[in-house]
Amino acid sequence: WDLEEVMKTHYNKLITEAFEILSDNDHQFSVKNISLESIKNFNFTHAVIILPIVKDVKFLAGNELGYHFICINGRTDDLLQVACSYSIYNIPQEQYVELMDGQTNRYYNNMINIKDLNPNTMEQGVDLIYQVTDIR
C-alpha cells in the first residue's frame, strides 16, 4: 500500500461525492490534483480549489484555524477568496460578512494572501490540492 496514494484517491472520491450531493446530482464534477504553483494563474470560471490547511495560515479575518479543509472560489490580485464553514464561528459576529464575487457569482466569507500558502501551511505539503470542475 502506498498510503499517500490511498489518501489522494479517498479525498478525490469524497470531494466528488460531496459536490454531487450539494448539487442534487444536477451537475457532474471532475476532481483532479493540481500544483500549488497553478493556483497563481487559476481560472475560477467553472472550477474551485479544495485544499487542507494547517494552523499557520493567516486569514484576513478571524483567528488561525487548526487543520481544516477550505474552498477557494475566486481571487483578487494576491488575495484568494475563501468559502470556509468555520469562519462564521471564528470571526466576531459584528465583523462577519459574506460577499459575492462579481466574476463567478460565488460567495466567500474570508480571504488568504496567496503568499501564505506554502508546503509548511498545508497538510501533507502540497499533495492534496484539488481542482473541482463543473462539467456541464
Would you give an account of this structure?
It contains 2 helices and 8 strands; from the N terminus they run αββββαββββ. It is of the alpha+beta class. A 6-stranded antiparallel β-sheet has the order 1-8-2-3-4-7, covered by helices on one side. Strands 5-6 form a two-stranded antiparallel ribbon. Strand 5 and strand 6 form a beta hairpin.
SSE order, one letter for each helix or strand: HEEEEHEEEE
This entry's quaternary arrangement is single chain
Strand order of the largest sheet: 1-8-2-3-4-7
- Rounded to the nearest angstrom, the radius of gyration is 15 Å
Tell me about the biggest sheet?
Answer: 6 strands, antiparallel
Query: What is the terminal separation in angstroms?
Result: 35 Å
Q: Which structural class do the helices and strands define?
A: alpha+beta
Counted beta strands: 8
Poorly predicted ranges (pLDDT <50, ≥5 residues)? none
The average pLDDT score comes to: 78
Helix tally equals: 2
Helicity range: 10-25%
Q: Which of globular, elongated, flat, extended, rod-shaped describes the shape? A: globular
Strand percentage, roughly? 25-35%
Task: Explain briefly what this protein structure is.
By secondary structure, the protein is of the alpha+beta class. The chain has helices at 3-22, 87-90, and strands spanning 28-33, 47-53, 68-76, 79-83, 99-100, 107-108, 110-113, 130-135. It has two helices and eight strands.
